[in-house]
Design a protein that fits this description.
27% of the residues lie in helices and 30% in strands. With 345 residues, the protein is an alpha+beta fold. Helix 2 packs across helix 11 and helix 11 crosses helix 12. The protein is globular and about 65 Å long.
Amino acid sequence: MTYIDIIQDNVKNHSKVLWWPKFAYHYTDVTNAVSILSTGTLYSRHDATALKIMSNDNASRQVIDVTNQDITSMVRLYFRPLTPTQYYNEGYKHQALRYYRDERANVPVPIFFLFDLNKLLSLPGVKFSEKSQAGHGSLLHSGVDEFAKLNFDFIYDNSYERINEAKDYRHAEIVCPASLPVEPYIRKILCRNSQDRSTLLNLLIESSPNAFLKYQNIIKEYKEDIFENNGIFISECLYYKNKICIEFSDTYESQRYIDRMMQKNNVTELSPIRVGISVTWYKSNSILNQAYVDTLYDPRGRGRELILKGFKTPSQSDKIGIKIHFDDKLVCYAVQSTGFSELLF
């Protein structure tokens, strides 16, 4: 029996989402995703911190502080998306409603890297666990025989009926020593919506044009069986006739998360979120003019569209860039032609 034999059996018999068992998953914020693609390497938390290339922390400090340093010195991937942790940190979450109320436990623009699981498992030093490595960690294993013993029915389970039995298994991990080169093993890079995809592409082409050319064709919008959609996010951002039109997400999952966490954390009122919008007009990539607008967003407001007026497009401008931050976290970067009012990506 080989790894690929077990993976194919998992596809047929152990996962309702047929493509889940084919990949290993790394989940991170868009700013970190740009660093990973620009360097061409997925580093461990320890090394990424030392190299100062991890822009967004992602995880709760309370969890990281009790995790074995041997684990934080390794690259960590999941067997599947939609882990329990993802429920709490996917998308921008109000600071009063975060995991342990830790302001760093947040992934404002979630990006999934999907790696070839069969190839990954064959690398020297790769190990795996049936449950999470966070905290004191689950026992690590290696080799085909040990891989075959994992409880894949629970690892790939996504039902509510077995949540108490399977919850810990949904955090099953694969770990690699120190770092992982991206190009040989990456198969897909998935974004929550078209605006998130545009944000990643716009940041990437500025950071590393070579990485943009290399990876743009595998960066996709994919909505099913991978994202919770329970955070606050931007659905669309457009500049039209000297106005900026911003559409905020309006999902049932987002409102349900807010209601649930307000009750859980004994929060009766949510303060508004500060929204910062920076606008830059260009001509052939040279800056012509810039503007900045500060406003507030009510996280309990449903389906809110924000329209900002009064901008004046410089006559020579051929491109506009709009960056939106919730508090100090980037949640959107839209770039479009001023001549035709169309998004470039």
